[in-house]
Amino acid sequence: MSAFSSAGGITFAAERWALNTYSCHQDRRDPDGLATRTRISKQILAARDIETVPERQEGDAIWPNSRVPGFIPFEMPDYIHGTAPDERSRLSALNNLLNSRTLAEIAPKPGDHVLDIGSGLGQLSRAIASATQRTVIGIEYSPDQIAEADRQAAAANESHLVEFRQGDAANPPLSDSERGAFDLAHTRFVLEHVKDPLAVVRAMVAAIRPGGRIVISDDDHDVLRLHPEPPGLRELWNAYIRLYERSGMDPYVGRRLIWLLKHAGAQPTRNTWVWFGACSGNPEFEPIVRNLIRVVQSAREQIIQHELLEADAFDSAIEQIRVFGKRDDAAVWFAMALAEGNRPL
Ligand SMILES: C[S@@+](CC[C@H](N)C(=O)[O-])C[C@H]1O[C@@H](n2cnc3c(N)ncnc32)[C@H](O)[C@@H]1O
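Above: inputs. Below: predicted complex with S-adenosylmethionine.
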């Protein structure tokens, strides 16, 4: 049970309301979320005395992108990377690197009705929809991510391909006719950011029809290799991994994907990697090294705040990775775990 949960109906709802209110603001005013989380905790304590939850007003800043009647307030998770503009551009660049390989593994078929959980900026959702020629439903908790995903879809003239709904991955806002009717449920780089990945995978299995497919992919942070290894990399990467654990997330969730499928009620059918490495001289080398630097940097303040690494050691290791990125004899290995299953007939 999370630190934000409590026993009673109205009190519980009031706590969630406070958490939603402040977490929505977190994206814009406090991308690292540290100051905000302190405020959230205080607000939750205050909310314990609230008797009723305020009605949502039209145009209210709370849940601005929820498009489903009867939307249920949910617990906003801590998202290590945040949604600041830098992080968004990193996520977009990562999508450019990985989407065609991921899409080949997902193998959506024309006509498939697809649910994409934790859709982020929606690039992969749109790529899937282009393959199915059918609108993909994306579930995403961050209103800021949804706003940017909508903006990017409109800029690409692809708004018709996607419908983004604000909601929690473990309790996606779906209508009765949608639940249990999707042909394919997909998620990428989300299970590592939730405290209860099994609840998310269960919700995905419940969303697909009997015989429908579920494809889940995520990191196993243990697989990173750089050679020649930049000084300080090991300590830096270790601190980054520890931050996941401190935040209640599993940095090694990639190795658990088949287990998650089975225990969520699916029949696993496939276990593989999506390659995500390169070497000097390869056009992907520079963007991969840049992604590595930016992904760790997005967690810099939290790593230092949690005393997982000193600021100087952090910055010096980042500098060493930059030097590594300019070598003509360097190699980097990383891969994303991907697993597939079916909902039994
Ligand atoms: C690393 S991004 C991946 C986005 C997209 N799946 C992709 O591969 O490009 C993770 C996304 O999951 C969202 N997210 C994290 N926890 C969530 C939750 N419990 N419910 C819904 N979305 C969540 C974050 O806001 C973020 O946009």
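Confidence is low (pLDDT under 50) at residues 1-76.
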